[in-house]
Amino acid sequence: MNTEQKAAIEQEIEQLKKSLTGNMFTDMDIRDQIHNLEMQLNGTKPMDSHFDCIGCGS
Hints:
Layout: H1 3-18, H2 24-42
Helix pairs in contact: 1-2
């Protein structure tokens, strides 16, 4: 992942964080999107899993 891609993901995360309402049910989808983007940004995935998000259920 190059610098431009990282910056785009970070910008998208910030925009999503600004749209959070504080209502758990309303924010659930937004938080899931943030989680997935952070995993892409950090290059992480659940331990012992070759799938990106199946292991954690997101």
